[in-house]
Amino acid sequence: MMEQRPTSNAEIAQFFSNIAELLDIKGEEWYRVRAYRRAAESIAHYPEEMIILRERGRLEEIPGVGKAIAGKIDELLRTGRMEFYQRLQSEIPDGVLSLLGLPGVGPRTVSLLYNELGLVSIPDVELAAHQHKLRDLKGLGAKSEERILQGIQMLHRISGRHLLATALPVAEEIVAALKDCQAAQGVTPAGSLRRCAPTVGDIDILASSARPQEVVDHFVSLPQVSEVSSHGDTKATVYLDSGLQVDLLVLEEAHYGSLLQHFTGSKDHNAALRGLARQQGLSLSEYGFQHEDGSVTSCATEEEVYGTLNLAWIPPELREARGELEAAREGSLPQLITAEDIKGDFHTHSVYSDGADTIEEMALAGMARGYSYIVITDHSQGLGVAGGLSADDFARQWAEISALNGRLAPFRILSGVELEIRTDGALDLPDDVLVQFDVVVASVHLGLSQDEDKMTGRFIVAMRNPHVDIIAHPTGRLLGQREGVAVDFQAVVEEAAGTGTMLEVNAQPNRLDLDGDLARKAIGAGVMLALGSDAHHAEGLGVMRFGIATARGGWAEPANVANTLSCEELMATLKSGKA
DNA sequence: GCCGTTTTCGGCCCGACTGTTTTCAGTCG
């Protein structure tokens, strides 16, 4: 049987990421390790497929990929294997890499655990810790052993990351509590929360103060805190009862811009920024810029930090080391879409299917948000579990929408449907019904484990139907629960561009689908995005902020997003057929 | 291992906190 060859950029990147960690555990020189890490990151987010670049001999155009790594990519694509990687694997079993996931355990400690005790998995380490075998290792002691054990128990309790929407209210509560401390000024969430990442590993909060120690002391003694992990003069890390980790950093006000920039990250963005500073003979840290003569210039605002490096200020959502530094230098950063640009919501449910509120309640909520329209998109009949509607049901709904529009004008309720793309690829309602909707949103909820060809085919059939305006939550991922469906996204994007079909950025906190990277790909191909709250009750319209944040992460400008159109413009666009 | 409008060799990102230390390495963000 043919061995499955890694071909996607993500799969190829994984090899180099593993190599970096294996070399790190082996004690290889840090810069070489970093080179592999950077290459992996670069490959994972490169807009073109490695397989194409290889054919054209253009692999070395990728930043961070030189002769040696290009050769390894070539070998991998040609033979499906990589000699160098296999040699490393023979020295260190794959499972050992998982030990790096333990809090407080880095490459040096992993090396000890493996080489001295032969531990190759987290359960191995747990057992050894219980048997007090770890405390005798050189450089470790009873405290380290206890800490590792606690880390393992923490991993058992919480699996991984927290949704942005979960962490945000917690962060706001802590910020409010910190403001009670008189010494604290300028308290604000930073980190992945400020960058509006879909999920956050921890909550970062920063403050400025003339008396940092007081603020840190106040922080670690908050009632929400269940455990203090570290507690210094300017920095502390705690765990809450919920298992969430919260970091606080406090500096004087003069450093505030430097601090905010530093603590917002991302790590990669900051590393790249420090690299730029180096080129100018400067050393950048949370305190400011250190010049070659040792003097330090601190920045009170982020604009000063970026300005010092001849860069425009960069919106936090873009700080992922994905080309934003180059754009900031050239003055070509996007004018990102904002909440004020949003004139309507493309994806909402009512009591007609599985929503909790009436169409009128949904409309009133939309009006309260300052929208000029919402699209009601109840499920079609094929999705029985969600109370999907038949053509007759929709006819009743249209009558109600029409009456409401008479009363609520100039606000408009648009008649829509979340049309099931059935497992056999057929659409769930006939064309003579579809043509009567203002907006048709098509999506898949069934047969999600179909193979890539079948799934891609279902999307393409839907997009080729002249009445389908939008594909909703295109990958079907559920954060922390389910990977997206197997689909050839490149083919989907091309078909969307070719047929003038929009792709949704679904704003549900556990979907955020498309994500920022894919949204950016879609925009790059000329696809229009449609933001939908997918609200199932009136309050649910509020999640739109997460959709906007995600679109911003995809570098979306107002012109890339259909929600910025007025109702008239939208109807004119839809009536003129698909592009 | 990568990279170059100072460099094809010699650089390459910074600092706080902790633990096991007796001057520092490891980890983390």
Please give a structural write-up.
- The chain has 579 residues and is an alpha/beta fold.
- The chain has five domains: 9-92, DNA polymerase beta, N-terminal domain-like (DNA polymerase, domain 1), CATH 1.10.150.110; 100-155, DNA polymerase, domain 1 (Orthogonal Bundle); 162-251, Beta Polymerase, domain 2 (2-Layer Sandwich), CATH 3.30.460; 256-330, DNA polymerase, thumb domain (Beta Polymerase, domain 3), CATH 3.30.210; 339-575, Metal-dependent hydrolases (TIM Barrel, Alpha-Beta Barrel), CATH 3.20.20.140.
- Helix content is 42%, strand content 14%.
- It is built from 23 helices and 17 strands.
- The protein has helices spanning 9-26, 30-44, 50-55, 67-79, 83-91, 107-117, 122-130, 142-157, 164-179, 191-194, 212-220, 256-264, 267-279, 302-308, 324-330, 359-368, 391-408, 431-434, 452-464, 489-499, 516-524, 544-553, 567-575, and strands spanning 162-163, 185-189, 199-200, 203-208, 225-231, 235-240, 245-251, 283-285, 288-290, 296-297, 344-348, 373-379, 412-420, 439-443, 470-471, 502-506, 529-532.
- The strands form four sheets. It has a seven-stranded parallel β-sheet with strand order 11-12-13-14-15-16-17. It has a five-stranded mixed β-sheet with strand order 2-4-7-6-5, with helices on both faces. It has a three-stranded antiparallel β-sheet with strand order 8-9-10.
- A hairpin with a 4-residue loop joins strand 6 and strand 7 (245-251).
- Helix 1 crosses helix 6 (107-117).
- The longest helix is centred in the N-terminal third of the chain and has 18 residues, at 9-26.
- The protein is globular.
- It starts with 8 loop residues before the first helix and ends with a helix.
- The chain binds one DNA strand of 29 nucleotides through helix 2, helix 4, helix 6, helix 8 and strand 6.
